[in-house]
Amino acid sequence: MTITAPAFGVQRAPRTVVFGAGQRALLGRHAAEYGSSALVCTDQRLAASPEFAQLLTDLEDNGLEVHVWSDTSPELPTSDIDACFDAMEYAGIDVVIGIGGGSCMDLAKAVALMLTHGGPIDQYYGENAVPSPVLPIIAVPTTGGTGSEVTPVCVLSDSRRELKAGISSPYLIPSVAICDPELTYSCPPSLTASAGADAVSHLVESFTAIQRPPSALAEGRVFIGKNVISDSYARWGLGLLATALPIAFEHPDDQEARSAVMLAANAGGYALGVAGTAAAHALQYPLGALTHTPHGVGVGVLLPYVMRYNAPARVEEFAEIARLFGVPKAGNTQQQALAGIEAVDALLDRIGIPPTLKELGLAEDQLEYVAELGLRSARLIDNNPRPLDVDALLEITRAAYAGDRTDPF
Ligand SMILES: NC(=O)c1ccc[n+]([C@@H]2O[C@H](COP(=O)([O-])OP(=O)(O)OC[C@H]3O[C@@H](n4cnc5c(N)ncnc54)[C@H](O)[C@@H]3O)[C@@H](O)[C@H]2O)c1
C-alpha cells in the first residue's frame, strides 16, 4: 500500500445503531430511555400492518404513551409537516420515532425540530441553520435506500418552491437507528429499485465527491467531501449492492439479499452524511418536481451521465468501482474506470431504471430549466469533483435526455 498523504476523515453517527432481522423488537426498550411520551410518524400502509401493531404494543409495554401520526405522503410535502406539528405541538412529546421510508423518517426529523425550536420549517433550509439539539429521534427504515436513519439531512417538498428543499444539520442525526431487514420484505420490485438506485447514487456520489482539506471542518460545513472514513463506507456498500440489489429486485423473498441491501443503504447514509452528494442530486431536485418521479428513480436515471461528466476527475475511483463490482482487470486505468462506470450502468439497467430523461416524461424544452434550477443547489454543486456551471449541467441533461453514454475519455 502506498500512503501519499496523511489520512483525514470524519464520522457522524447515531448513538446506537442496531441492525438485523427481528431487531425491531428492541424499539420500546430504546424509546423508553428517552422519556415517557412518544410521537410515531408513519404512513397509512404501515399503520394498517400487523408489524406496526406489534411495535405499538411494545412501546406501550415499555411504559410509553404513544401518539401516532399516520398521514405521511411520499416525498414529504411541507403540508404534512405542518399538519403533524399542529396536532402534536402541545402533546408533551419526549421522543419522535419515524417508521417507514425516507419520507416518514424525514417527517420525524422535521417535527422533532419544530417541536424543539418552533416553525415555520423554511427558516431551517440549508446547512447548519438548526440552532441547537432537537428532541431525540429514533429512525426505523422500511426501505433499503435512503440511509436517512443515520444522516444529518431532512428532505422535503415545498409547494411554494420549484425545488425540493433540504435541512442539513448534525442535530438531525437520529439518536437511535433500528434497521430490521424484515420490514423491507414487503417492498414491491419497483420500490426495491427506486430505493436501491438511491443507495447506489449515494455511494457513487460520495465516493467520487470533491476532496477538501481538513480545514473544511473548521469552515463549519456539514458536507466536507470524500474522506478516508466515508470512502470505506462507500466501498463496503458498493460491494454489497453489486451482488445483492439485482437479487433483491428479482427475488423479493431472498432474505440474505434484503439484508445486504439494507446494510448497503445504511453504509450509503454514513458516506453521504459526511461526504455529501453532488450533480445527480442537484439535477434531481427540479427533475423530480417536474416529472413527479420517485427520488431514487430520478437520481438513478441521471447517474450514468453524471459519472461520465465526472470521469476525467475521478479515474482512480471509477477504476476501483470496477474492482468492487468484480469486473476482471483489463487495460489501463482509464479503461478500468470506464468498466466501472459501465458496471454501475448495468446494475441500474437490470433493476429497471429508465435509461433516459425522455422516458421519465421530461420534455426536451425543459432541459435548460432543469440545468438552471439544478445550479441553485449550491451545497451539491460545490461538492461535485468537476466544476459545474449551467452549460456543464446542460451538457449532462442533454446526454441524459438522448441516452448518450459514449466513452468519456
Ligand atoms: N434524509 C435523507 O438523508 C434522505 C436521503 C435520500 C432520500 N431522502 C428522501 O426520502 C424520500 C424517499 O424515501 P423512500 O424511497 O424510502 O420512499 P418513501 O418514504 O417516499 O415511500 C414511498 C412509498 O413506499 C411505501 N413503502 C415504504 N416502505 C414500504 C414497504 N416496506 N413495503 C411496501 N411499501 C413501502 C410508502 O408507503 C410510500 O407509498 C424522498 O423524499 C427523498 O428525497 C432522504
TrEMBL record:
Could you tell me the keywords of this UniProt record?
Oxidoreductase
This chain belongs to which protein, by name?
Answer: Alcohol dehydrogenase
Q: Which InterPro entries match?
A: ADH_Fe/GldA, ADH_Fe_C, Alcohol_dehydrogenase_Fe
Q: Name one GO molecular function term.
A: alcohol dehydrogenase (NAD+) activity
Q: Where is the Fe-containing alcohol dehydrogenase-like C-terminal domain?
A: 224-401
List, alphabetically, the Pfam families matched. ADH_Fe_C, Fe-ADH
Every Alcohol dehydrogenase iron-type/glycerol dehydrogenase GldA domain range = 14-181
Q: Among its keywords, does the record have Oxidoreductase?
A: yes
